[in-house]
Amino acid sequence: MAPSTKVLPLVITDKAEMREWSRSARRQGKTIGLVPTMGFLHEGHLSLVLEARRRADVVVVSVYVNPGQFAPSEDLSTYPSDFEGDLSKLRAVPGGVDVVFHPHDLYDYGQREVGGGVGGGGGDSGGNGSVSCLEEKSLGHETWVRVDRLEKGMCGKSRPVFFRGVATVVTKLFNIVEPDVGVFGKKDYQQWRIIRRLVRDLDFSIQVIGSEVVRDHDGLALSSRNVHLSPEEREKALSISRSLSRAKSATEKGQVDCQNLKDSVIQAIQEAGGKIDYAEVKI
């Protein structure tokens, strides 16, 4: 199948069809850019698409909510979704998007191994008994990609299955789409660093690009989950960007005590009614 020249993106749901499309593009001498997303797109996602368009001849946007990175207690079932809205936004991107890869289930291998355990081999996340929504359903997937050191701490401390799930699904997308360039947002900074290390350590011939954070008019970092915030919660959430901005200004004026900067960020967020998961400041 030849790559589409239309502004309207081709929607592909099948893994084999997606791989063949990419290989057809490469036979024509085209480079491929991939923007992995979980959908419910906003301007931050669209900035990644524009970056991919600048760096590659054709652009693939994947839309897939990955159960392997959610713990059973997290928000997989309520993660926002609007696929038709996503297509409309992608059609409006200057230069267009060539393919939207929208698989139903990346962990469907044609036969279900029902009743498999979740401990021991692939099911135990780092030996702590934590499992993802994928494993909870016992669907037979048992191969995981780990970036051991970088996944520890920060977000990984409170979400023990998250980065293992992200690294695995990104590896799967890389193997299916076979891109030359992958574009990720630096809002999820630890995730971006993990993917860069994954590509280096596993010898993927893929350039990983990190794009800067895109913020709303009030300074809140754009996120698909922001749709769930009440006006009061949104106002409280602004304490994050405001406290970080003040910390940045302090460093520019010569403040180099990381602990003091960290304490000021924590204090500002707590005074606004927030609960701290972690805060890290490095200069």
SSE sequence, one letter per element = EHEHEHEHHHEHEHH
Return Rg in Å. Answer: 20 Å
Major sheet: size, sense and barrel closure? Answer: 6 strands, parallel
Summed up, the helix count is 9
Gross morphology is globular
Quantity of strands, as a count: 6
Task: Give structural notes.
The chain has 283 residues and is of the alpha/beta class. The protein is built from nine helices and six strands. The protein has a six-stranded parallel sheet, with helices on both faces. Strand 5, helix 7 and strand 6 form a beta-alpha-beta unit. Helix 6 crosses helix 7 and helix 8 packs antiparallel against helix 9. It is globular and about 55 Å long.
In short:
The protein has helices at residues 15-27, 43-55, 83-91, 133-136, 155-158, 162-177, 189-201, 231-252, 258-271; strands spanning 10-12, 32-37, 58-63, 99-101, 181-185, 207-211. The protein is α/β, with parallel strands linked by helices and 283 residues long.
What topology emerges from the helices and strands here?
Blueprint: E1 10-12, H1 15-27, E2 32-37, H2 43-55, E3 58-63, H3 83-91, E4 99-101, H4 133-136, H5 155-158, H6 162-177, E5 181-185, H7 189-201, E6 207-211, H8 231-252, H9 258-271
Parallel strand pairs: 1-4, 2-3, 2-5, 3-4, 5-6
Helix pairs in contact: 6-7, 8-9
